[in-house]
Design goal:
Helix content is 34%, strand content 26%. Strand 2 and strand 3 form a beta hairpin. The longest helix is centred in the middle third of the chain and has 23 residues, at 167-189. Helix 8 (167-189) crosses helix 10 (276-294), helix 11 (318-324) crosses helix 13 (356-367) and helix 14 runs antiparallel to helix 15. An eight-stranded mixed β-sheet has the order 6-10-11-20-19-18-15-14, sandwiched between helices. Strands 1-2-3-5-4 form a five-stranded mixed barrel. A three-stranded antiparallel β-sheet has the order 7-9-8, with no helix packed on it. The protein is built from 16 helices and 20 strands. With 488 residues, the chain is of the alpha+beta class. The structure holds one RNA strand of 73 nucleotides.
RNA sequence: GGGUCGUUAGCUCAGCCGGCAGAGCAGCGGGCUUUUAACCCGAAGGUCGUGGGUUCGAUCCCCACACGACCCA
């Protein structure tokens, strides 16, 4: 028998030993007086003398994370993930029979005790167990107690082990929950209504990305997992929900990297009677509030450096950003031929096929994106890569759009929404010619019924959580990131 | 897409110039009634990611593949 199997066999033998003694290793219930951390908090201030006189009884259960045997006595640590409480097991208190249950205890099991609280000579709050009960036997061996799991892959594949043994991982996912909660609080305080819109869509619109395809059998209909909720949320604005948001998953059938997971969580919100400038102000306010509440600071550690959210955030045209972060000159960004030459210099693929706006955007990504550490609103996006954004009145080749960059990554994308149905149809048609999509007539029809002037924004929640927790990979902030299946 | 690095016991990690595979934790046996990374004694535990190649001999060198981490575009 190999080592791993032997460890399992040992545990299974203990399980059988319990059953032979008439002990159910998976009892249906064990009523507790509270979670371990609640009990620890409740008696935090109680000193040894008051516990001595009070005879305070508690019933508590938890995962056994350490056992320290002393012959006719032992200490076991019970953990609830947030905290631990030790129990003192004494043979003379429990009796020979109950005390011998310890022989069948393994790290990772859930056990419960019932007893009286006291403080040891090192003043640690401890339960003197008068009952000892197995609550759930663990049959698989647990990782080592000092380091937990370190291998990134295994941490993601067996997230439960990561969460249970690495406090930092637990902090990341609790911070994630807190961030989402803060965003909801912030938006609801401003009258935004949370909705859910289709994840399966007959036309995958609202962004440019390859979609996942699925099929509805009864309707015999191909459907796409949404790449963005945008076009449905704007239909709701047409319907009179003038402040609306959704926090949920979108799906893009593209590469996986430290900044990309095929399914990811996005906040999208739409705000009638606002424009993209209002969105910049709101975004500053929202993200600063979330950072203060969740991370406790607006200066966030980011690798060797920091991302400083101090307001006001920089606002920079896309063109200006390229000029600022490369040796390119204004004339290199002018005529088509010059632009193509510049793009080739930076190793951009398929140069002749790309529109001039796309070339500029590619140059931006190649030169400036990774260097934008502190928050920067990049504005003045070309109209030909912004088919859903309103044109700038003073320059119809540009749009009222920005993307927010920080920590060298894109965090948000926002614009004054295009609400002219005729212009929208033309832009869809241009896009269809260029990239082979279809015109979403149903959406244009909605616009034909009239959408008020509206601003809308999408914020990548996973990347926001990366920033708030100092995580350099999106896989560290997604509980179960997509991984290649392992065949073993 | 290109490059660099990693994969050794259940877990965390060593392993020098190619010559019998090492430790801590966990597990197993024994001891110990206030310990807390408990401690003390003892005996175990390995397809060195997978497949090829070079060599008298490969965890180690070469090639390919798988999975992962990081960097670049």
């Amino acid at each position: 028998m190999e080592a791993g199997e032997l460890l399992r066999a040992n545990r299974r033998a203990k399980l059988e030993a319990l059953r032979e003694r008439g002990v159910d290793p998976y009892p249906a219930r064990f009523v507790v007086d509270g979670r371990v951390s609640e009990i620890v908090a409740r008696f935090e201030g109680a000193d040894a003398a008051s516990l001595e006189s009070g005879a305070q009884r508690v019933r508590v259960g938890g995962r056994v994370t350490a056992v320290r045997g002393h012959g006719k006595a032992a200490f076991i640590d019970l953990s609830d993930g947030d905290g631990r409480l030790q129990a003192h097991l004494r043979r003379d208190v429990l009796g020979e029979e109950t005390f011998s249950l310890l022989d069948n205890l393994d790290l990772g099991d859930f056990w419960g005790v019932d007893g009286v609280l006291f403080r040891t000579r090192t003043h640690e709050l401890t339960v003197k167990a008068e009952r000892l009960v197995v609550l759930a036997k663990a049959l698989a061996p647990w990782p080592e107690k000092w380091h937990g799991l370190t291998d990134h892959e295994q941490r993601a594949r067996q997230r439960y082990l990561d969460l249970a043994t690495n406090p930092q991982s637990r902090r990341v996912f609790l911070a994630r929950a807190a961030a989402v909660r803060e965003i909801r609080t912030f938006l609801e305080a401003r009258g935004f209504v949370e909705v859910e819109t289709p994840m399966m869509q007959p036309i995958a619109g609202g962004a440019t990305a390859r979609p996942f395809v699925t099929h509805h059998n009864t309707l015999d209909l191909d459907l796409y997992l949404r790449i963005a909720p945008e076009l449905y949320l704007k239909r709701l604005v047409v319907g009179g929900i003038e402040r609306v948001f959704e926090i949920n998953r979108s799906f893009r059938n593209e590469g996986i990297s430290t900044h990309h997971n095929p399914e990811f969580t996005m906040l999208e919100f739409y705000w009638a009677y606002a424009d993209y400038r209002n969105l910049m102000d709101l975004t500053e306010e929202m993200l600063c509030q979330v950072a203060s509440k969740v991370a406790g600071t607006e200066v966030l550690p980011w690798g060797e450096e920091h991302v400083n959210l101090a307001r006001p955030w920089r606002r920079l045209g896309m063109r200006e950003a390229v000029l600022a972060y490369s040796d390119l000159q204004p004339e290199n960004l002018g005529e088509r031929a010059a632009l193509e030459a510049a793009a080739r210099r930076f190793g951009i693929a398929d140069v002749p096929r790309l529109s001039s706006g796309k070339l500029l955007a590619e140059l931006f990504e190649a030169t400036a994106e990774s260097r934008l550490l502190d928050p920067t609103f990049v504005t003045d996006f070309p109209a030909d890569i912004s088919p859903l954004a309103k044109r700038k009145p003073e320059d119809p080749e540009l749009t009222e759009r920005f993307e927010l960059y920080l920590g060298g990554m894109e965090l948000a994308n926002a614009f004054s929404e295009l609400n002219d149905p005729d212009d929208q149809r033309r832009r869809f048609e241009e896009q269809a010619r260029a990239t082979g999509g279809v015109v979403d007539e149903d959406y244009v029809l909605a616009l034909e019924h009239g959408m008020p002037p509206t601003a809308g924004e999408g914020i990548g929640i996973d990347r926001l959580v990366m920033l708030l927790t100092g995580s350099r990979s999106i896989r560290d902030v997604i509980l179960f990131p997509l991984l290649r299946p392992r065949d073993d």
